[in-house]
Amino acid sequence: MDKLNLGGISLKDLENVRINIGEVIDEEDEWEEMGPHPKPKMTDLRHWDFKLLDRYKPFYAPQCDVCALCTYGKCDLTGNKRGACGISMEAMQGRIVLLACLIGCSAHTAHGRHMLHDVVRKFGRDVPIDLGPDIAVEAPLTRLICGIKPKTISDFEPVLDYIEEQIVQLTDALHTGQEGSAADFESKALQMGMLDSLGKEVADMIQIACYGMPCGEGDVPLVDVGMGTINQEKPFILVIGHNAPPSIDITDYLTEHGLEDDVEIGGICCTSIDITRRYQKAKIVSALGRQLRVVRTGFSDLIIIDEQCIRADIVEQAKAVGTPVIATNDKAMHGLVDRTDDPADEIIDDLVKGRVDGVAILDPFKLGEIAVKVAMKMHPIRANKDYILSDDDFMMHLDNCIQCGNCTLACPQGLKIGGANKKALEGDTSALAKMFDICVGCGRCEQVCKKGIPIVDVMVKAARPLIANEKGRMRIGRGPIRDTEIRNVGAPIVLGTIPGIIAPIGCGNYPNGTEDVYLIAKEFAERGYIVTMTGCMAIDAALWHDEDGKTLYETHHANFDRGGVLNVGSCVSNAHIHGAAIKVASIFARRNIRANYDEIADYILNRVGACGVAWGAMSQKAASIATGFNRLGIPAVVGPHGVKYRRAFLGRKDIPENWEFIDCRDGSTIRCEPCPEHLLVAAETVEECLPLMAKLCLRVADTPQGRQIKLTHYIDLSKKYLKIMPPDWSMFVRSEADLPLADKELYLKILEEEHDWKIDWDKMKILKGPIRPPDPSFDPTNLARLIREARVK
Amino acid sequence: MKCNGCSPSDFISFDVGNVHGPESGRIASSEVIGGLIKSAKRPLLVIGAEILEGEMIDKAIGIGKKGIPIAATGHSIAGLVDKGYEGEHYYYELHELTNCLLDPEWQGLDGNGNYDVVIFLGITYYYASAMLSALKNFGTDPLIRAVSIDRYYHPHARMTFKNFTPKYDDEYMEMLDRIISVL
């Protein structure tokens, strides 16, 4: 028989028979034995979720005590009362968490789908997924969850179909009269979190394949970061959002027409990260948190918006500084007229003459010429205007402030702006300037000011010298972690001699400004952890320098190895961090990953010392990202604003039976130390966050050497930032070999005197005290099906 | 400050959008809150990182010296260490501590059982608010009375002060002193 192809076959002599072929399974698809859960539906991994939820029980902190989702309500749920439909406060919180994860997963998945639609038109369906000789496991999440090994971008279509179908099913579960159990809402949220990670992988793989973005190279170039890097002498195009193709069309136009040195392009948020992966003359102006302030400076001659993380009032804000806006995505039209099919010259003329505040152009491949021409024509019109307050206006506004405190009550950070205004009026602008970094740039203060003071503008004025000097350097997003890197570090990570993978992710809603991000990355990189940055945290870390004026990206290598500081890429690129953990199981431990989610998550939970940190988590995407990490067995710490997500997954170290693991060797139950102690937890300050993250890198399968190294960092960070020995440190000691090398005798003495442990001082050995004795062959799992005897049967 | 002298504007949350539901924190005087703490069988003072600003740490220590155990969250423990405080105190992460407080079987920081009155002081506003919400909504059986003696109106607390702007710092500090004097 001839080779079958997609399509249909009509059989001779059988006029009414046609066989449709939707998928052809070829021999290469037998690359690994199919695991138990290909494209798992919402209950297929419920058993795994319930294992997690049993140990890490959901903790709820309601933001609102009522439910108003249907006309039975509003229902008062205070005190865990039930609403008219019967839902409890607890289940209602789980429902809201699921909603957040659905929104987040939808954003990433729709981004991938949108991009696939566009790039297929330009590049065709057969763009190969080829990440070079160092990467054979090209799409670990796609393999793990769907059992698919993608060869071309069109192979992601069934993956997207699967996610989209699940989104519909899980959204249905939110309806009044559907799900009623908090635990089941959480299981569904975990399902959504997992699919969010998959959607991100699809989106990033498509843009890597189509746009030739880096495929995991460590020596990727550096680019400029910061508001001070914009050359205001040139026309400047500001791009905002996450979907790169429209902005790439602009950079392609600049390149093709030799205008790279004549027109500046820079961006906010992930689009800027992604365009620099292809065009290194682009600037990364800022992370999300400074959007309003970047717009208000009036630097931009044109603003391009695509999708996600765009201010809802962007057109109004841009209009105030005379900047036209072009919307490029049907999900974020902002009331603008769709001019996609209009002649370019007409659109350009309307924007430059100010006949319209903006337009929508929904074909990304029509954008380059229009955007560049508009910016070049707008620049001389706008060049003579200064949109930053004059000295006189600045003083006038300060003088108008009556210290009423309304701005403070409206400020998400509770910034005491009135006091800073008063100091500035007296000649000291330092307090106001310092607030520029702590301010999250929402603008709520201005709306409640009784005197109509443009507080954001006042703050920008005070911080102008800082803005002018805000010049950082950042490596471009390198994309996936190479298989060859995993071969080198798989053993040190699992054995613990590389103490952990630290993954700063997400938005810029920090409690105390961007410097905390720098501190987190620096502290862990200098201790030999691997720091994998993505999204806004990757940008904000680049704003800070050491005493030699170097950023972390300049002082640390960018390989996935000890002490590396990697910019993995945009938000969708953080799928590669999941991917790295999966590859450790696949490449180092030789576990089958195909459609084998629970086994691999179990492996990661017990063995791979990784911890995410979303220090400024703000969006629903951050909720789904963290939840996706959690299902895969990776804990995450959020900053204090993260409590507003309403739910944490907290372990109880004081309940020993919660920490029982199965030994795969014989199926026996072993009571272990609480590792990792939590799956999702908030820290109040960065000083608390640092030792907490070190603790969350501990794993039950740590070798003595690994435990010793991890415990040393945990104790050291606690002493450094909290000024105490961590009260629970002894729980993690299994034998004298786990103790920090320095002062070992001192630690033994503390164990004897304060914890009543028995010590053989001649042999310097612990005789009695630990939760369990050391056992180098211990093979922990939470899944009974992995007991070796069970496997043999 | 007299609680019966409150005006509706006093009930505005420090974060003005933090509007929640039918049960709002009662604004109470130092004497009333002090009386509640004094009558508690198992009180616990929970402090956070804002305690390190100004003289608040001294007020916390003042309360601690009246025999109230202190749970130091955030990195507030560093302040107690700097002050050489030797009274009963513990480091605990606030999320974790609140979770434990919601468990009637929890044995407490000293192994002698859970607490009936918890007092929040010097904790980042929105973090404290969320934890007070958890205690209000789920700490009902047995009832845990969670009060705030911060400079903010906390709608999820059972009892709370009103908002104090910086220019009323002295008045706020005086209120803390009066609580200490009641204990």
Helix and strand topology:
The complex is a heterodimer of chains A (793) and B (183).
Chain A: E1 7-10, E2 18-21, H1 46-55, E3 57-60, E4 66-67, E5 75-76, H2 89-123, H3 140-146, H4 157-172, H5 182-211, E6 222-225, E7 236-240, H6 245-256, E8 264-268, H7 270-276, E9 283-286, H8 291-296, E10 302-305, H9 314-320, E11 325-327, H10 344-352, E12 358-360, H11 367-382, H12 391-400, H13 406-410, H14 417-425, H15 430-438, H16 444-448, H17 455-462, H18 464-468, E13 472-475, H19 483-495, E14 501-504, H20 515-526, E15 530-534, H21 535-541, H22 552-555, E16 565-569, H23 575-588, H24 597-607, E17 610-614, H25 620-631, E18 636-638, E19 647-650, E20 660-663, E21 669-671, E22 680-682, H26 686-695, H27 704-721, H28 744-755, E23 758-760, E24 765-768, E25 780-781, H29 788-792
Parallel strand pairs in A: 7-8, 7-10, 8-9, 10-11, 11-12, 14-15, 14-17, 15-16, 17-18, 18-22
Antiparallel strand pairs in A: 1-2, 3-19, 4-5, 6-13, 20-21, 20-25, 23-24
Helix pairs in contact in A: 1-5, 2-4, 2-5, 2-25, 4-5, 5-25, 6-11, 10-11, 12-17, 14-15, 15-17, 19-23, 20-21, 23-24, 26-27
Chain B: E1 26-27, H1 30-39, E2 43-47, H2 56-64, E3 70-72, H3 77-82, E4 89-91, H4 94-101, E5 117-121, H5 125-138, E6 145-148, E7 159-160, H6 169-182
Parallel strand pairs in B: 1-7, 2-3, 2-5, 3-4, 5-6
Helix pairs in contact in B: 1-6, 2-6
Task: Describe the fold and architecture.
The complex is a heterodimer of chains A (793) and B (183). Chain A is α/β, with parallel strands linked by helices and 793 residues long. Chain A is 41% helix and 12% strand. Chain A is built from 29 helices and 25 strands. Chain A has a six-stranded parallel β-sheet, with helices on both faces. In chain A, β23 and β24 form a beta hairpin. In chain B, α2 links the parallel β2 and β3. Chain B has 183 residues and is of the alpha/beta class. The relative contact order of chain B is 0.23. In chain B, the strands form two sheets. A five-stranded parallel β-sheet of chain B has the order 4-3-2-5-6, with helices on both faces. The mean pLDDT of chain B is 94. At the A-B interface, β3, α13 and α26 of A face α3, α4 and α5 of B.
